[in-house]
Structures
1.
Amino acid sequence: MTEGAVAGREKVSRLRARLRALYHGKSPGAVRFRLWVIAIDFLAIGFFIAAPFLRDFPAYLYVDYTVACILAADIAARALSYRNLREWLRKPNTWIDLFVLATLLFPLWLFNLAFLRVLRLWSLFHSEFFWQTIGRRYDETRWEEVAKTLATLVTFVFVATGFVYASFAREHPGIQGYVDALYFTVTTLTTTGFGDITLPGVWGRLLTIVIMISGITLFVRLAQTLIRPFKVRFLCPTCGLMRHDPDAVHCKACGTLLNIPNEE
């Protein structure tokens, strides 16, 4: 092996170690770096949500490709930060991010699938990256579950809105714009059903049923998360039970003595 190849490998190893420290480390500098990454993520998600209103502006494609470059750099850096690339590829969030990147790189070809970009919101709130940074103080409380459930609900609203808009905006006179699709989705999701906008045909009725059932399910899930008694996460060394009462001394499943850390 030549000296140039050895030097190249060393540079790659140092780069991977540096990225690993930034993406997975606990130092103040690593936390600040991840906070910036998360802030950029939220700006990108805001762009995805506002995209239907911005497509007519000349600068839209420039912003689209800029977001694509930033997302591609982030995905590449995350991949390099993992010790095992196969483990990284097995994560559902990875495939969601790659799909979002594809819609950004080919906005004209994948125009009808652009509404799925908002899945980035779901993948962000369901990632260890987020909860090890923003949620590191709340990881042992119900706030993590509440945020995940709420993110799922918001993601579904915008995915369903985008699907209705992409499928019926040019065919159904009741849906003349994105706001009409959002209005229909919210009224159907909440089972309000004013009836001023209805989707035509069998497929329209089936889609309405799916949105309605999904909405009920997601709202019930959110209510359960808010009302359910508070539990802390602590792995029982004997049976593996993860959820316990905050003041639990013994595991309710096997009776093992627990040592749950607390601030009292």
2.
Amino acid sequence: MADHIKVRNAAGVWTVRAGGAVLGESRAALELTEGDYPPVIYFPREDIAMAFLDKTDKSTHCPHKGDATYYSVVTKSTTLENAVWSYEAPLDSVSRIEGHLAFYTGDGITVEEI
């Protein structure tokens, strides 16, 4: 694993909400810290209501994690474009985040420990 990236179990119960809807709640979330960036919570895909997510054409590449795919969050009142990302086949050094989703917070999305 790149020395500046750490993946560990996120203590407690975590929730993600968008547009007034609970998208997911998990006791099995992961916390990824990378350098000086704020920690990012990754939710197991099975703990997220995937019916609210639409896969988009966007993709990005991180030299430390691999290729990310993106999803928009679709709620009754809005669509939050490319608000979710996932590393479908992450590099071996961060393989624990495979099958997990992370969310950009703000603009109607909250991720918090409950």
3.
Amino acid sequence: MDLEARKYHFIKELFSIDRESIIDTLERVLKREKEEHQEVSTDLKNELDSRLESYKNNPNNILDWQDVKNDW
């Protein structure tokens, strides 16, 4: 059975479920799977690389967390 057929079959099975606890479990599994396989965008990777490089070039150019926290 190909993926599209499996999805269709799964959706049909969902409509026959009459216990909310099963739906809750399926939702948790789907959420966990999405979170585990979430990709970091290229823009974010570039920003992180830039910040890491900046830190490597000048490790003393940092802010104290207490100072930042007090300024907010």
